């Protein structure tokens, strides 16, 4: 069996499907594993994405899980390693992007790598080391209010330098504009100055494809999903047959949405779904903290409604409500209570016959996928940039489950309805 050439480690589950989606679109056959598999790969693939839930756990634990994933990928024979994090560089001064990058560099004996969250298809661009989300600088975007990783500085050289002892530099837009040669020269210069990790400016897909060959010699790349579109060419692969890559079994079962993201985009999607007449049940973290059995209440509420169309169970709230809950019960406790409840609800909904499930939010997706005991997913058609439908086997859904893990920030206002329309 041909060995996979690219081994990817994603720090959350929505991010993993985002990366897998871009690799598939670039022409790679991709297998996505949930957590580190405990057996060798038993199907042919060009790339394997191991999805971890390591973005916001203590740095030492994130490092340990990542190194375990690395060892498994190395045992499968991969030639290059890709550490995938969020296109909004979600992290804190404690990590986990810096510590995980450092640990991977140490383990791979690698003295230079890149850090490039640019994802132009979703408006994430990097210019002079500053990350933009659409037309706003990162720290002026909704990310400044993220419940777990508020981003308050847009200068990625500074943000990453606070998380690592390795010297951080910049492959700036002038070098990128000169293509692979320009980038190679810049890397040589940075190396001579002792830089070991370089943020990469990029504002378009064309640039990411043009400079892709410059990453061919690196044992490790670290990035959002954007640079994935420039990597398959390094392995002699060309843009994929999207129809073949996207073929999934036909969809069955009832339809539901579980949303724990509090991003601007998800707030808009929840509002649009509800104002369009969709049925919704709100989960309040304060009631959870007071011991209310909202899981059972939500499942009882959903049962008679599922036959009429998709139902939505959501903890999604505006920043003021999130802050108020966090002040009363603590940031971690609020996050954990909500994730735990939504995961139990996702499982309960599937037990009630849901076969098409949309989950909104990275951490939320991690919790739901774990509750559904999913170990592997196939990537299907793209609903919106960075968000494909997937097909998963789960002991809770013996016939298989269509699942989409939506990054909080991705998708337009009509995403929930568009997702189901695409499957129908
Ligand atoms: N109403 C709320 N109050 C406080 N925390 C919340 C609320 N709703 C959701 N959360 C938590 O906020 C976090 C959102 O993160 P995540 O699911 O990764 O979304 P995103 O993809 O937008 O980052 C989760 O830990 C979730 O449990
Ligand atoms: O790169 C991205 O923006 C996404 O793939 C991603 O990582 C999503 O994370 P969440 O916003 O926490 O869902």
From TrEMBL:
Stretches assigned to the Four-carbon acid sugar kinase N-terminal domain: 6-229
Q: Which domain of life is it from?
A: Bacteria
Named from the GO MF annotations, one term is:
ATP binding
What reaction gets catalysed by this protein?
3-dehydro-L-erythronate + ATP = 3-dehydro-4-O-phospho-L-erythronate + ADP + H(+); 3-dehydro-D-erythronate + ATP = 3-dehydro-4-O-phospho-D-erythronate + ADP + H(+)
Regions annotated as coiled coil: none
Domain named Four-carbon acid sugar kinase nucleotide binding: which ranges?
A: 256-416
Entry keyword set: ATP-binding, Carbohydrate metabolism, Kinase, Nucleotide-binding, Transferase
Question: Under which EC number(s) is this enzyme classified?
Answer: 2.7.1.217
- What family, per the record? Belongs to the four-carbon acid sugar kinase family.
Known role: Catalyzes the ATP-dependent phosphorylation of 3-oxo-tetronate to 3-oxo-tetronate 4-phosphate.
Q: What protein name does the entry list?
A: 3-oxo-tetronate kinase
Instruction: Give the source species.
Output: Ramlibacter agri
């Amino acid at each position: 069996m041909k060995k996979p050439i690219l081994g990817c480690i994603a720090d959350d589950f929505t991010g993993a499907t985002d990366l897998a989606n871009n690799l598939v679109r670039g022409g790679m056959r991709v297998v996505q594993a949930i957590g580190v598999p405990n057996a060798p790969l038993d199907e042919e693939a060009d790339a394997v994405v191991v999805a971890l839930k390591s973005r916001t756990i203590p740095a030492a634990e994130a490092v340990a899980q990542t190194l375990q994933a690395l060892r498994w990928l190395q045992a499968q024979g991969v030639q290059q390693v890709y550490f995938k994090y969020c296109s909004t560089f979600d992290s804190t001064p404690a990590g986990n992007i810096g510590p995980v990058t450092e640990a991977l560099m140490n383990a791979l004996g690698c003295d230079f790598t890149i850090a490039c969250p640019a994802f132009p298809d979703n408006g994430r661009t990097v210019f002079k080391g500053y990350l933009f989300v659409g037309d706003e600088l990162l720290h002026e975007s909704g990310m400044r209010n993220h419940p777990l990783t508020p981003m308050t500085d847009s200068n990625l050289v500074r943000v990453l330098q606070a998380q690592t002892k390795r010297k951080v530099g910049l492959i700036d837009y002038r070098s990128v504009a000169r293509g692979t040669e320009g980038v190679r020269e810049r890397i040589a210069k940075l190396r001579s100055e002792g830089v070991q990790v370089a943020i990469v400016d990029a504002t378009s897909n064309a640039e990411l494809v043009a400079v892709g060959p410059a990453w061919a010699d690196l044992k490790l790349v670290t990035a959002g999903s954007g640079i994935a579109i420039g990597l398959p060419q390094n392995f002699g692969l060309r843009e994929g047959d999207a129809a073949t890559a996207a073929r999934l079994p036909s969809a069955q079962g009832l339809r539901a949405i579980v949303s724990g993201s509090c991003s601007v985009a998800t707030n808009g999607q929840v509002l649009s779904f509800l104002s369009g007449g969709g049925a919704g049940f709100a989960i309040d973290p304060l009631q959870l903290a007071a011991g209310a059995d909202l899981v059972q209440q939500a499942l009882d509420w959903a049962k008679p409604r599922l036959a009429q169309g998709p139902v939505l169970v959501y903890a999604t709230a505006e920043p003021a409500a999130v802050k108020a809950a966090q002040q009363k019960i603590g940031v971690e406790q609020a996050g954990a209570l909500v994730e735990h409840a939504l995961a139990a609800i996702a499982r309960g909904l599937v037990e009630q016959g849901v076969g098409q499930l949309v989950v909104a939010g990275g951490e939320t997706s991690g919790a739901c996928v774990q509750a559904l005991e999913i170990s592997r997913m196939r990537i299907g058609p793209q609903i919106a940039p960075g968000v494909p439908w997937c097909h998963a086997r789960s002991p809770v859904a013996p016939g298989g489950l269509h699942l989409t893990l939506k990054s909080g920030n991705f998708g337009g206002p009509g995403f929930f309805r568009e997702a189901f329309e695409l499957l129908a």
